[in-house]
Amino acid sequence: MNGVMDIAIAALILLGGGFVLIGSWGLVRLPSTMERLHGPTKATTLGLGALLLASMLYFQAKLGIWSVHEVLISLFLFITAPISANMIAKVHLHRLRIGAITEPDSIAGPPPRPGEDGAWATYEAPEQKTQASTANT
Questions:
Q1: Where are the transmembrane segments (predicted)?
Q2: At what angle do helices 69-98 and 44-63 cross, to 10 degrees?
Q3: pLDDT tens digits for 34-52?
């Protein structure tokens, strides 16, 4: 292997390891479920992508072959991580709304409330006898 490839592989391993460490630390240390979702879905996904890219470069430089396994793993990871985080967040918000669970105080504080115009979605159920509350009945 030449020096440039060694430096690129080492940099990708350090970058990936740093992202994985930060994402894992966030998963363990952040207090609320919604905050904990960001560790594995953002930082850890990027870290594993960098580590898999370093693996792909290493085996190309050492054996002279391109491996498709790392590309498939990265593709699967980048597709499934946001979908699973979205499902976890939906279940968590539903359980909070019905009062099945309580959350510790968040580092970011309580979620913001909508303005008078109600321009974005909230945690509350729609008001009764409105178009949104009767649309599916």
A1: 6-28, 40-59, 71-89
A2: 170
A3: 888 888 888 888 999 999 9
pLDDT of residue 21: 92
Instruction: Please check whether residue 75 is in contact with residue 49, taking contact to mean a CB–CB distance below 8 angstroms.
Output: no
Distance (Å, whole) CA 133 – CA 131: 6
What does the alpha-carbon distance between residue 18 and residue 47 come to, in Å, rounded to a whole number? 7
Q: 82 and 41 in contact (C-beta within 8 Å)?
A: yes
Q: Which residue is associated with the tokens 């930060």?
A: 22
* Banded pLDDT at 132 (limits 50, 70, 90): low
Query: In sequence order, what are the residues at sequence separation of 6 or more whose Cβ sits closer than 8 angstroms to the Cβ of residue 109?
Result: none
pTM for the model: 0.69
Q: Could you tell me which of 52, 117, 108, 112 has the C-alpha nearest to residue 78?
A: 52
Tell me the domains of the chain and their CATH numbers: 3-107 (1.10.287)
Single out the residue of 79, 20, 27 nearest to residue 50, CA to CA: 20
Residue scoring higher pLDDT (3 or 1): 3
